[in-house]
Amino acid sequence: MKEFLEKFLALKRRYGGFHIKLLYLRVEFVIDVKRDIKREFVEKILKYTVAVTRSSDVVGQLGENSFGIILTNANTDGANVVAEKITKYISEINFDHDKRILDLYACLTHELFILKHTDFEELIDLVDKNTQFLTVGIKLKELVQ
Q: Which has the closest alpha carbon to 133: 32, 8, 25, 5?
């Protein structure tokens, strides 16, 4: 993920003309679940995320329960459409199990924020600290500064 983001930023600096957004997602389990079941849920969400993004976007796992999507040439509304689809998918997982198993937290960053924080680990740490709880119908605010 880090390498893809660096390449997109280098292309952006050199040629301009397109926009980059980073959609960061973190899954939190609200009940005690075994590690292998957690992994299974995260893998399902990751596969679904790949299915609902465009071929020009990059999806990658960042941590045990977190992943990011580099959205190329996307505006805030487009990023919110992706977040809404994933949120609905998670609500279906919870519904299928007759109880709330997991919550989704997300953060959407503008390319200016990404360009300002060039150290990848620092960027992810800042983004993680600025996540907001997502439920169906909630729109993400874009983190610019």
A: 25
Residue 10 pLDDT level (bands cut at 50, 70, 90): confident
The H or E element spanning position 115 is helix 111-116
Distance CA 115, CA 59 (A): 19
Q: What is the pTM of this model?
A: 0.85
Identify the structural domains of the chain with CATH numbers, from first to last. Answer: 2-143 (3.30.70.270)
Q: What is the DSSP string of 2-38?
A: HHHHHHHHHHHHHH----EEEEEEEEEESS---HHHH
φ and ψ at residue 39, rounded to 5 degrees: -60, -40
Q: What pLDDT band is residue 145 in, cutting at 50, 70 and 90?
A: low
> How far from 56 is each of 51, 53, 83, 95, 131, CA to CA, in Å?
12, 8, 17, 32, 24
Task: Give the pLDDT mean for 36-40.
Answer: 86
Kind and range of the H or E element at 107? strand 102-110
